[in-house]
Amino acid sequence: SNRYNHARVQEYWQHVWDREGVYELDDAAIDRGEGTYVLGMFPYTSGSLHMGHIRNYAITDAVARYRRMNGEDVLHPMGWDAFGLPAENAAYERDTDPESWTRTCIEQMRDELERMGFGYDWSREITTCEPEYYRWNQWLFTRFYENDLVEYTGAQVNWCPDCETVLADAQVDEGDGHADVRDDTPGHADGEGVCWRCGTAVETRELDQWFFTITDYADELADGLDALDGWPESVREIQRNWIGRREGAQITFEIDGDPIDVFTTRPDTVFGATYLALAPGHGVARELAQRTSSGASEAVDDFHDRAADGRAEGTAGVDTGLTATNPVTGEEIPVYVASYVLSDVGTGAVMGVPAHNERDHAFATAHDLPVERVVAPNDGEHGERNGQPLPYTDEGMIVADGAYEGLASAAARERLLDHDAVTAATTYRLRDWLISRQRYWGTPIPMVHCEECGAVPVPDEDLPVELPEFVQTTGNPLAASDEFVQTTCPDCGGPAERETDTMDTFVDSSWYFLRYLNPDLSTAPFENEVADDWLPVDVYVGGDEHAVLHLLYIRFFTRALADLGLLDRREPVDRLVNQGTVLHGGEKMSKSKGNDVAPHEYGAETTRLFVLSAAHPGQDFEWTATDVSNAYEFQQDVYRMVLSFTDGAGGRTESRPHDAYLEREIDRTIAAVTDEYDRFRFHRVVTELQQFAQLLRRYREYETPYRFAYSRGLRVLTKLLAPLAPYLAEELWSALDGEGLIAGADWPTPLHDIPDYRTERELVRTTLADVREITDVVEITDPDEIELVVAPDWSYRAYEIAREVNQEPDSTASEGSRRSRDGST
Ligand code: ANZ
Ligand code: ZN
Fold this sequence. Notes:
Elements: H1 6-20, H2 27-32, E1 36-40, H3 51-69, E2 74-75, E3 79-80, H4 85-94, H5 98-115, E4 126-127, H6 131-146, E5 150-160, E6 165-167, E7 172-173, E8 194-195, E9 203-212, H7 218-224, H8 233-243, E10 246-255, E11 258-264, E12 275-278, H9 283-290, H10 295-308, E13 317-325, E14 332-338, E15 349-352, H11 358-367, E16 375-376, E17 397-398, H12 409-416, E18 422-427, E19 433-434, E20 436-437, E21 447-450, E22 454-457, H13 482-485, E23 486-488, E24 495-498, E25 502-503, H14 505-508, H15 512-515, H16 528-534, E26 537-542, H17 550-563, E27 573-578, E28 582-584, E29 587-588, H18 604-613, E30 621-622, H19 625-646, H20 660-678, H21 682-702, H22 707-721, H23 726-735, E31 762-766, E32 777-782, E33 785-790, H24 795-805, H25 811-817
Parallel strand pairs: 1-2, 1-26, 3-4, 12-14, 26-27, 28-30
Antiparallel strand pairs: 5-6, 5-9, 7-8, 9-19, 10-11, 10-13, 10-18, 12-15, 13-14, 16-17, 20-25, 21-22, 21-24, 23-24, 28-29, 31-33, 32-33
Zinc ion is lined by residues 450, 452-453, 456, 489, 491-492, 494, 496.
């Protein structure tokens, strides 16, 4: 029939693909190491796929198919991010265990992915909750431990009382559902924010915890961003802010003859310091609070209690009664404890300069402290102190009396470095990565605590340390299992206890892209040489909500692995694509908002074709039923067109001069579409193909088609469509008697030299009535006059078509061919 029955077609071709193993890359190809690595962020095993997943994987699949048709060895694997709290929560809710739940999710999601027509190499599937996978987390942890990349230390940590676990900084949200990394306030264990998973208000606790010392790499990770020009600038900027490198100085004040260091980015404002402020919990403040003698110490103690409960915010603070000496001016200034000073930033102490800093100004206003202007704008009157509103936070000229007066900020900073009490210093916002979780569903940290020997790593030959059987308890199920906990010390053989913390699941995903290369390797997590051949991942696609967690951790891991001698490469990903959001009714499409559309509600292929055609991969777009049905109609049109030709319409065998334009248009389309694929602009591919299909239809309506050119046109159309609508393309390809499967067919090439259609263009003035499905309509200045941009030797065609094909101009026909220059990002 002339109707495309997508359900039947999908089932048939899926079967053929599976039988032929078309998407599998054999070990020989892996060892050659010359291929293209196309990867989508593997999904968390939550139960079912949502439209964001579909968009993500439709992009990688299109790239993988396109590159495969270009003759490349394409590695396009898939796996499961299978550990984590939600599985545990689901287990409690459903009275099952996390493993059974996770396995059920995986079965369902794999089935959904297959039915979308995504061509994965399933022979490389990995699942992070398998002991065979997580033993390598443990092995890598031990390597990190041996090389001083692991620390075990007491720390103020973010604690989710509902999940009963510690959270990394980046897992504490501002309460709007996303870690808001643009906020200046570091979120380190300051008791603010909510759990990224459950939304419960986060608390602060002090616990002994395992850390990866990612801060050792702070400079490298920040500097490396400059060279990552295949990454969106927005992600690089988020990482830069997250690392938060601040150059400045440490200035040593004195309290009763004892030194106290402050960190500042603006040492040139030291002349205007009117108070000194300590973080709650700062050593000096704590000592004072423990004294019993004075009223001030009681107030400080009381303030500490309030701060610990999260009841001290904004400009909250308390006068300690102490004074500090400014080493540069010799002035005595009061010492406060202030909640806005963070204990783990800089030195945990600041000099307050209300005239030149917003937060200090707010604090000074609240506590009635003096404001002393010491820097004036360069263009202001020299010496003028009250002309501008305060705080004045830019650089300028020093207007404080003394040796520095009249110097520019930068020069003053320079000279201040000669002062004994001032030293150059750099601080970072980045904290070490807290990987301890007091939960069941994760990789057990392979350490043993021995009273004699302290913390001792489990020897490699005893890995994996497998999870004990799951039990329902309120606390940590690992700690509840005596059998798991009681062990012997690997060093002295005495009685010892196993560590019961499990690893943050972000450890699992920090190196999974290496495991796909040799998923069954039993002697190491990956093979060094193979990894060096395949890294960096050529194209990595995923959401920008991972800008600082996952995408920073994979960069850290890659560098750490390189320093351990396991890799040469230092960056994991060459080109990063962040897919935009699918909106529905103006809001992000999601189950929780109740505005979601299940991926299989429409034909799988219609859905993927639609999400690719709707917008540039990085752009958000709105889901509309009309646009979906347009994608559906396009499939039907192409199907009808091909089938009606193969159904016996023979066509001419002699060419006529007039056919030349079709031949050229085929070549031009190949060039244009190829270019759009190279730029990941699948929406433009679809536009090109729709126009090309329309051209073929018009050509055929106009006269008996020249068989050679027309059937070539149909084949080219089918091939160019294959990365986006692979089932349909297979069906058409077999109807056109194409050789083999289109999934393995060669990408079409132009028959004639064609001009670079992008650069060699010419402006042609014409009227709306003359315009048919020609080329880019750039700008309509007047409804009757349109500027067309066409390649030089195509301009004749514009007039040809207008004159010959269309006797009856109507405005809707030209609407359909209008293209703006948007999306040219
Ligand atoms: C005095 C000063 C004067 C500062 C001035 C700035 C401007 P940003 O602001 O993000 O670049 N600071 C230092 N340690 C801190 C801590 N533990 N908690 C809170 N704030 C702290 O970060 C650097 C500035 O943050 C530092 O420079 C310091 O304030 C403040 F006109 O010192 B500044
Ligand atoms: Zn021991």
